[in-house]
Each structure stands twice: as structure tokens, then as C-alpha cells.
Amino acid sequence: MFGKIKFAAFFIAGTAGVVWLVNLPYPMIRRPVAQVAPILLLPSFMSMDHHYRGAIDALEQADQLVSRATSSADIELGGEKVKTAKQHLDHLPVWFLGYYPQRYCTLFSCSWQFTFDEFEQARQRVARLDAVVFQDKNALVPFNEAKNGLETAKQQYAQAENTKDRETAIANWQVAIDKLDQISQQTLAGKTAQTQLTAYKRDFEYARISSFITAAQEFDLEAQKIQPTNYQVAAELWQQAINRLEQVPNENPQYVDAQKLIAAYQVKQKTVVDPRSTTYIAAAKQYALAAAKASQNPPHTVQKWEQIGDLWEKAIRQLENIQVSEPSYVEAQKLIAQYQTNLGTIKNRRQVESDGKEILDEANKEIQRLIASPPGNKNEMKAEIIRIMNQLSNIKSGTTSYNEAQRLLKLADNQLKKLK
After folding, report:
1. Which long-range contacts (CB under 8 A, 24 or more apart) does 49-55 make?
2. Where are the transmembrane segments (predicted)?
3. By C-alpha distance, which of 172, 173, 179 is closest to 146?
4. Could you read off the pLDDT of 111-165 as tens digits, one per residue?
5. What is the pLDDT of residues 250-262, one digit of tens each?
6. 0.70 cut: is pTM over it?
């Protein structure tokens, strides 16, 4: 009995050794065995079938995870599936594909039709997915760095206590946004960054513009403090405030407020830099304002128009005191041109008023003469009346004599009708 058992053990061990030997992954062994006794290669066919199915399943899972990734965890798991698929493919003997597996599939009714082309396509898919995973993992590094930098910059901006700290935070904020914008949009990190960049840029733009206005206001306060002791430094501070505000784009909602601040700071700056010219301009504007108010609600008498003209002349004389070398010279010349135009208009109005008064006085004298000694001839009387009416017609509207002239014209017209 012991001998039989020993013989059986040796036989089984020998058979197993032969099967192991013929299933070694060497063409010079498997090829002749496959031609003579393919049944001995059953373990190889089973292994190939297992690795084939494993490679296909792993590839499909990897493709789904990588192509439709929604998080870094998907990328990590997809990368593991790519490695699994690659390991399965590495266990497939390429030289054996397309020939001998058909016998195994004929004996065991499998659906395996793994050819060289399929194998090459699988290899290419593995390489492509492996590259995608590599790129996605690499892209996550700058993505996370940029997001961390952005959050840090936002925190720095919120905690900033002065203009320098705010501008440093804004600069870091811009760097983080630029990094996010540079990440390839072919990667998960790039796609995620693009969906978030709109909100990030909106918040950044609001903070950037707000920092300009806040900085300008701080410069203004500092300039007001230092103005009594050092007007030059104060002027420079106001210029820095203006420079900040000029960076506010006109499509921004805060543009109007920025322009108002610019105008106010420019006035303060000019007052400090050129107080003499500013005084003359201010005086000229006061005379111009008085003249404009006096001109309202015409008609006015000749004397009133003369007074208004005198106000415009005083305004012009104030501006003429500003020298060519002074910063406000150009502004003064513009005002002089405007005021001279206004003065010319006033002079014309005065002349029209004077002419109208003179015509009316002369017409009244003629009327009194006709009343005192009317002509005996009816036609002569008509001619005199018509001549007086022609004189009165020359009085223009907008003068103090116009209404009286119109009243006299009606009376004269009635008198002509009676003489017919």
C-alpha cells in the first residue's frame, strides 16, 4: 500500500511538474506543445482569459473615472485602475495572441477574440489614460497652491490696516488668479478653476477698486494734516490719490464717485500749489456769478446793462493778473475767452436798449408836435403818422421801450383808420 501511495505521489508530482514546465511563458516550449497536446496548456489559457477580462474591466472603469472625474478621488482611483489594467496586459503573451486561444475557446465555448489589434488598442488606451492621470495629478498641485494663495491673500486684504498692506494683498491675489488661469483646461483642475474664476475675478475686481478709493481717501487725510507745514508733500499726496482714482474704469459702478473725488482733490492740489492764481480765479468767478444773476429776468435799463458789463470786466481783470508761468494760466485764459463773449453780449444788449430808448423818445416828441400843430392836409397827417410808425417798428423786443412802442403803434394805426 505504501509503495502504491508513493508511486501515485511521484506520478502526480511528475505530472504537475510537466504541466508547470510546458506552461512556462517561453515560445520554444509552448508552441510545440500547443501543436501536439494543447490540453496541457489549459492553465495558460485560463490565465490569459482571466487577465484579458481583468484588463478590459479595469480599462472601462479607468476610462469612466478619468474621463468623467468630478474630484481628485476619482483621479486617484482611476490611476489605480489604469495600473491594474496594465498589470493584466503585462501577463498576456503577445506572441500567443490570435492563434492558439481559439482552440481553448472552441473547447470551452468562450467569447474571447483577443487579437493583436485589440491588444495594441488596449495598450494605447492604458498609455493615454496613464498620461491623463499624470497630467491631472500634476495640475492639482498648482491648483491647490493657487487656491491656498488666493485664500491667504483675501485674508490679508481683510486684515490690512493701511494702503501698503492692502496693495500687497491685492498683488498676491492677482498672482493666485493668474496661476489658476494658466492651468490647462484639459485637466480636471483646469476645468474646475475655470468654473470658479468668474466669481474669483469679480471679488478681486471689487476689492481692487475699493482699495484704490480707500487709498485715495487715506492720502487725502494725510495731505490735509501735513498741508500747514509742508504744502509740497501735501500736493504730492493728493497727486497719488488722483493717480489711484484714475485707475477706476468707466464701466465700474464706483466710477462716478471716483471722478467726484478726483475733482475735489484737484481743487485742493491747485490751492496748495498755486494759491495766488487760485485766489484770482475764485474772485473772477464771484464777479461772473454776480453778473449772471444780475442779467436774469430782462429787459433792463441802459444803466443796469452797464453795471452788468462792469462786473464782467472786473472778472476779466482778475484773470489777467495770472502770469504765463503760473500753473493756472491755461484755465484763466479759457475763462477770459468765455467772459469776453459774455461781455460782448451784454454790450450788444445795452446798445439795443439805448437805441430803443432813443427811438421812443424821438417818437414821443414827434407825436407831441403833431398833437400841438397838426397839418391841415389829411394826406400830410397820414404821412407823418406812417413815418412815426416806421420809427417805432425799429424798437426791438427784449427792451424796456418795446411794450410802449407797441402801444403807440396801435394808437397810430387806429388814427390812420380814422383818416381814411
Report:
1. 49/104, 49/110, 49/112, 51/88, 51/89, 51/91, 51/92, 52/88, 52/92, 52/112, 52/114, 54/84, 54/85, 54/88, 55/85, 55/88, 55/89, 55/92, 55/122
2. 7-26
3. 179
4. 455 566 677 777 777 777 777 776 777 777 888 888 899 999 889 988 988 888 9
5. 888 888 889 999 9
6. no
